[in-house]
Amino acid sequence: MDTVRLPRCDGTVVEHVLRDPVPWVRPTAPLHSRIAFAAAHVVADPLRDDGPGRPVSLDWDSTLAFRRHLWSYGLGVAEAMDTAQRGMGLDWHTAQELITRSAAEARSVGGRIAAGAGTDHLPSRPTGLDEVTAGYEQQLAVVQEAGAQVILMASRQLAALATTPEHYRAVYDRVLSQVDGPVILHWLGQAFDPRLEGYWGSSDVGFATDVVLDLIRDHQAQVDGIKVSLLDAEHEVRLRAALPEGVRLYTGDDFHYPELIRGDGSHASDALLGIFAAIAPAASAALQALDAADDAAYDAAFGPTLALARHVFGVPTFHYKTGIAFLAWLSGHQPGFTMVAGLQSARSVLHLVEAFRLADEAGLLPDPSLAAGRLRCWLEVNGVHR
């Protein structure tokens, strides 16, 4: 058995014995009870000088290999989303290439893919709503040409300009009239991006919900579903029950996903989650159990992951990407712990040590010896002596 000495916040050190790896089983047929996307992160190229404010360079081999890992467990890939550091270092020029490459990779393996179309290439405060609409149209064309399903991302630029629900409707009505297939709308809460406060024209969630529902009803043929990341399970349950027949709610709630995906007997959530990038084998096992109507196996797979998810997505929630990349490195999915814009420094040593411990408890480290060895080296580099 592998052991590693883990520092604690009181200055003491505890000897941690790693568990044996869990033999997670890949599905032999497509998952069918729910549609599930994992929002995938990107791997920075450590040999390029692309710190904050500089052009981005990715390790394409590792980035695409991680997507093949997700597809191998039957999950879809949600590409170029906030997990991939959209708005936090990943520029639109690189995002275009990422979408194109990933969509081609998806075709080669028969994987499901959706990708974010937004307005992040525009100035932080555009000249008006027409410029925001044109920005959406430009990115929409790229995603559609690549052959990926469109995720119509929430727009910081629109939030900066819009003061009423009518402003949001003016943009979304025009954009939705141009899509070539049903899209996924995107409602990202303030915890994930403070600049999206008051999205849909009000900080009152109930009022904003009415705006969203009116939009969906008026464009039902163009809307596959809506991804909601408000970390409010009760609101999600109410919203999904109010959606028109056939419109999906894709949970983005990384705190309550097991209960929301299971459903309440009348309605259930599909999934578009950043944490699924870190827990793909367990998420796949849970969804396979759901397909087989095996509640015990569902709980056994998902239950141990919840503490990890709540830790990785702890305040400040928008820095969850650091934990996702750290666990990918410990699991052998990338050669180094590097992130676009140097965001590997966004979480503390103690935070990432706890992520390691919780991932091990959930059976999510496929090679415990590799993970332990990498953690020891990383701790020493960070001044934590063995």
Layout of helices and strands:
Elements: E1 3-7, E2 13-17, E3 36-39, H1 60-72, E4 76-79, H2 92-109, E5 113-117, H3 129-146, E6 149-152, H4 156-161, H5 165-176, E7 183-188, H6 205-218, E8 223-229, H7 233-242, E9 248-251, H8 257-262, E10 270-273, H9 280-291, H10 295-302, H11 305-312, H12 320-330, H13 349-361, H14 368-381
Parallel strand pairs: 3-4, 3-10, 4-5, 5-6, 6-7, 7-8, 8-9, 9-10
Antiparallel strand pairs: 1-2
Question: TL;DR?
Answer:
By secondary structure, this protein is an alpha/beta fold. It has helices at 60-72, 92-109, 129-146, 156-161, 165-176, 205-218, 233-242, 257-262, 280-291, 295-302, 305-312, 320-330, 349-361, 368-381, and strands spanning 3-7, 13-17, 36-39, 76-79, 113-117, 149-152, 183-188, 223-229, 248-251, 270-273.
How are helices and strands ordered from N to C? EEEHEHEHEHHEHEHEHEHHHHHH
How is the main sheet built? 8 strands, parallel, barrel
Radius of gyration over all CA atoms, rounded = 20 Å
Strand proportion, as a percent range, falls in: 5-15%
* Outline type: globular
Number of beta-strand segments: 10
Round the mean pLDDT to the nearest integer and report it: 96
| Class by alpha and beta content | alpha/beta
* Proportion of residues in helical segments: 40-55%
Report how far the terminal alpha carbons are from each other: 18 Å
Q: Which residues sit in consecutive blocks of at least 5 with pLDDT less than 50?
A: none
